[in-house]
């Protein structure tokens, strides 16, 4: 007896265990499964998302706005409960920054970048970060903590950028 058959690839489910390989449906269908196996359902989902990028982006932005406070509270709670991890991460970053600052670096010029970020905070009423163009702890490349490797970005841009930037050198 066939419980389900994928309409895309023809895979059949003969037992309840095999039925787990089919996409669940929120409706109250006989077995609670659609007539698509999970790989075919996933493929269709990716294709739909690629052809409806505007809808996906709008949904994601709305979701982020609606959950911002909840996410922030969860993050603060985690930080409070895991102080040692947060302290270790901060110490590692400070040590890396110290090791990445050569003796010939212009410390006054570096400080001016941080002053500029602070001025932008007040002027634009938005948080700004001093960002390393080439990250200090990159996977394939590590930059230096010098004035020409710094830039001021909004906090949102800097967090979104993360450590995944593609570097273009002259």
Layout of secondary structure:
Elements: E1 4-5, E2 12-13, H1 16-19, E3 22-24, E4 33-37, H2 38-51, H3 53-81, H4 83-99, H5 107-124, E5 128-132, E6 150-154, H6 155-161
Antiparallel strand pairs: 1-2, 3-4, 5-6
Description of the molecule:
The structure is a single chain. With 170 residues, this protein is an alpha+beta fold. The chain has helices at 16-19, 38-51, 53-81, 83-99, 107-124, 155-161; strands at residues 4-5, 12-13, 22-24, 33-37, 128-132, 150-154. The protein has a two-stranded antiparallel sheet with strand order 1-2. A two-stranded antiparallel sheet has the order 3-4. A two-stranded antiparallel sheet has the order 5-6.
Keywords:
13% strand, alpha+beta, 52% helix, elongated, 6 helices
Q: Percent of residues in helical segments?
A: 40-55%
Tally of strands: 6
Structural class: alpha+beta
Query: What does the average pLDDT come to?
Result: 85
**Number of helices in the DSSP assignment:** 6
Overall, the morphology is: elongated
